[in-house]
Amino acid sequence: MPQMAPISWLSLFILFSITFIIFNVMNYFCYLPKSPEQKNEKKLFTSKTLTWKW
User: Fold this and answer.
1) Rounded distance, CA 9 to CA 17, Å?
2) Do the domain assignments include residue 1?
3) Distance between CA atoms of residues 44 and 47, nearest Å
4) Residue 54 forms part of a structural domain
5) Single Gene Ontology BP term (predicted)?
6) What's the rounded Cα separation, in Å, for the pair 13 and 8?
7) Where residue 6 falls among pLDDT bands split at 50, 70, 90?
8) Is 13 contained in some domain?
9) Tens digits of residue pLDDT in 27-51
10) How many domains does the structure of the chain reveal?
11) Residue 50 DSSP code
12) Phi and psi dihedrals of 53, rounded to 5?
């Protein structure tokens, strides 16, 4: 059974490492957290809807 040459192992390791890093960078920068301004607006909106008028 023939063995794979070390240069081939190195090139595969570099290829998969670059692919893994690119995948993680894309996932990290595609996530858009909500700004605090939106949270405050939502809080104010929910407090207005929860007022009881008995």
Assistant:
1) 12
2) no
3) 5
4) no
5) proton motive force-driven ATP synthesis
6) 8
7) confident
8) yes
9) 988 877 777 765 545 554 555 555 6
10) 1
11) T
12) -120, 80
